[in-house]
């Protein structure tokens, strides 16, 4: 997985943009991406700021490039909405693009009936 960028559902101020950059910022070592700031470091840095409160009303996303779909073997992009989702997806054994994910899900559901 490789982070391609970040985006928000609203326009943000310069301070808010920097806060979101810090939230999503990753460093890459040996093909493994980790967040630069931990959740605690991020909170310590921004929790007392006035613009941190606006974070609750913003929807922010990170866009990731996934090397290979487990079904069709093609690379694909994925939009993830928070760091917990990113960590969970990174640890997932099966990474499927939307098309193959829906197909795989429908097969599993039809086999259980």
- The strand order across the widest sheet is 1-4-5
Shape: elongated
The total count of strands amounts to 5
Task: Tell me the Rg in angstroms.
Answer: 17 Å
Query: How much strand content do the residues show?
Result: 15-25%
Oligomer: single chain
Instruction: State the helical fraction.
Output: 25-40%
Q: Poorly predicted ranges (pLDDT <50, ≥5 residues)?
A: none
Give short descriptive properties of this protein.
single chain, 113 residues, alpha+beta, three-stranded antiparallel β-sheet, two-stranded antiparallel sheet, 4 helices, 5 strands, elongated
Explain the layout of strands and helices:
Blueprint: E1 2-8, H1 14-24, E2 26-29, E3 32-35, H2 39-46, E4 60-66, E5 76-80, H3 83-91, H4 98-111
Antiparallel strand pairs: 1-4, 2-3, 4-5
Q: Please, could you describe this protein's structure?
A:
Helix content is 37%, strand content 24%. The protein contains four helices and five strands. The protein has helices spanning 14-24, 39-46, 83-91, 98-111; strands spanning 2-8, 26-29, 32-35, 60-66, 76-80. The N and C termini lie far apart (34 Å). The mean pLDDT is 85.
């Amino acid at each position: 997985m490789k982070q391609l960028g970040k985006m928000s559902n609203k326009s943000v101020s310069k301070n808010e943009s920097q806060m979101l950059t810090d939230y999503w910022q990753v460093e890459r070592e040996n093909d493994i991406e980790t967040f630069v700031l931990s959740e605690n470091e991020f909170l310590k840095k921004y929790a007392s700021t006035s613009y941190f409160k606006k974070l609750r009303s913003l929807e922010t996303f990170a866009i990731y490039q996934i090397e290979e779909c487990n079904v069709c073997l093609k690379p694909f992009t994925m939009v993830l909405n928070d760091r917990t989702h990113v960590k969970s997806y990174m640890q997932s054994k099966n990474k499927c693009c939307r098309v193959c994910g829906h197909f795989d899900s429908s097969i599993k559901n039809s086999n259980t009936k």
